[in-house]
Amino acid sequence: MDPHYQELIARRLDVPPHEGPDKVTTLADAVGRHVRAGDTLYLGAAHGRANPLIRELARQWWGRRPDFTLATVGLGSPWTALIHGGLVRRVITTFMGEGYPFPTPQALISRAVLEGRLEVSNWSMLTFPLRLLAGAMGVPFLPTRSLLGSSMEEDNARAGDLIVADDPFGAEGRVAMVRALVPDVALIHAWAADRSGNLIAAPPLNENLYGAMAARRGAIVTVEKIVSTDFIRRHANLVRLPAQYVQAVV
């Protein structure tokens, strides 16, 4: 091949060894730069529980009243430190308590609710991810029949996060429309990421990574290992969150 063509092809088509800006930073810097008072924080679940970020939140905001809203599929230890420290005003969730060795109430959370220090928005384990999915898709709501006839229908309709209407296509029965949930920042843990934030995450993913995709200001992620962009490309089938959604990697 003509050397000029070879050079042109290499210049235009070669994949660069690194992708995007370097987002690797410290816990203190990631939380300090990206979390603000009054934020709604999405917290990853299952293998995505970002416990180091939660502890850093407690370190940086202890003794103040940031009035966070936590959006998470389940709330228990060690995140109860945020409740005990008075950092949280409201929780959007499906479960609050301890899951191990069996489901049971959590004394610190129960006390905060009974004393009126903590507001709770209850959802089912279907409708909570549906709200995040709507946020990730950029649509204002998604339909479901999940909560019809329950106290959650009544409570969330009263709060303005759920509307029930007749099926617009004429089918029999009512349909609930759940409002999109759009957090300000997502806190996620995963296996690995490259320095720009392409994230390899392990199942079970529970509500997938919709919360990170829905977040207005993106995700702060902690990982076990920083890997090369080449490694990410060779294992692209395992990447569950592209770098465009990530603000910081720890």
Keywords:
single chain; 250 residues; alpha/beta; Glutaconate Coenzyme A-transferase; 2 domains; nine-stranded mixed sheet; three-stranded antiparallel sheet; 9 helices; globular
Describe the structure.
The protein has 250 residues and is of the alpha/beta class. The protein folds into two domains: 19-140 and 180-249, Glutaconate Coenzyme A-transferase (3-Layer(aba) Sandwich), CATH 3.40.1080.10; 141-179, no CATH class. It is 29% helix and 24% strand. The chain has nine helices and twelve strands. Strands 1, 2, 3, 4, 8, 9, 10, 11 and 12 form a nine-stranded mixed β-sheet that branches. A three-stranded antiparallel β-sheet has the order 5-7-6. Strand 1 (40-43), helix 3 (51-61) and strand 2 form a beta-alpha-beta unit. The relative contact order is 0.18.
Summarize the entry for a quick read.
With 250 residues, this protein is of the alpha/beta class.
